[in-house]
Amino acid sequence: MENKVENNSCPFTTTIALIGGRWKSIILFLLSDHTRCFGEIAARMPSISRKVLSEQLKELEADGLIHREKFKEIPPRVEYSLTDLGQSLRPILKDLAIWGQKMVLDTVK
Amino acid sequence: MENKVENNSCPFTTTIALIGGRWKSIILFLLSDHTRCFGEIAARMPSISRKVLSEQLKELEADGLIHREKFKEIPPRVEYSLTDLGQSLRPILKDLAIWGQKMVLDTVK
DNA sequence: TCCATTAGTCACATTTAGGTTACCACTATT
DNA sequence: AATAGTGGTAACCTAAATGTGACTAATGGA
């Protein structure tokens, strides 16, 4: 949150800094109607490495978009979910997905 | 358009490939209610280099989001505008901007 | 003659994002 | 004593994105 937002006042730069990149929008979308643990997210995103997934989750948490809850169990379990701020992105994520879906369909035709 | 869309079927990957990155959403937004020439865009985006601006415009054109029209004048003039596909992004761009704007305001407070 | 102007390009350097592989802690189960 | 299962981390590497500064063509005007 801190650095990414404060040093600029362009709303696009701000938004893209928080949800841009190859993976963040997908992660947020996966969490948009379920709390999920690390392994579940990884299973639904076969092409992201665990390292990068871990990094992205950390950034999303630092930016206040997702919440991380670690349970003291063996084997360990960690649940990720959207914060209120993250929830506020849901309509935008949906529109991005719809737009992309149309592109895919039009291209195939 | 071609490569970026065809090799995957994830709508987020598609959309982010076309409008992600630090500059593309800003460029599209600047064109969303005006046709503008290269220098005008550059003037409104002081922190992008001319080289990168030129590259981004080429990609946006190749992806079918913007239209480029070169006039045979001296000094040369080139006008950029949104295509219909580009226009279809306007509501999304607006929402991204509004969301980012809120972030900036909340952070300053 | 020389400068200004527009819309770039070229060669090069640097920064950032993302990827690969191996490894760890902790406990239950076999 | 070895293995499985979860959620990671560390060291290292590559490719993509972005930046810098110099340069160009073509012509009108001082």
From TrEMBL, chains A, B:
Gene3D superfamilies membership: Winged helix-like DNA-binding domain superfamily/Winged helix DNA-binding domain (1.10.10.10)
GO molecular function annotations of the record = DNA binding; DNA-binding transcription factor activity
Which InterPro entries does the annotation name?
ArsR-like_HTH, HTH_ArsR_DNA-bd_dom, HTH_HxlR, WH-like_DNA-bd_sf, WH_DNA-bd_sf
Question: Pfam families annotated for this entry?
Answer: HxlR (PF01638)
Q: Domain HTH hxlR-type: where? A: 10-108
Task: Tell me if Transcription regulation is a UniProt keyword of this record.
Answer: yes
What superkingdom does the record give? Bacteria
Keyword Transmembrane applies: no
Q: Which UniProt keywords apply?
A: DNA-binding, Transcription, Transcription regulation
Coiled-coil boundaries: none
Q: What is this protein called?
A: Helix-turn-helix transcriptional regulator
| Organism the protein comes from | Chitinophaga agrisoli
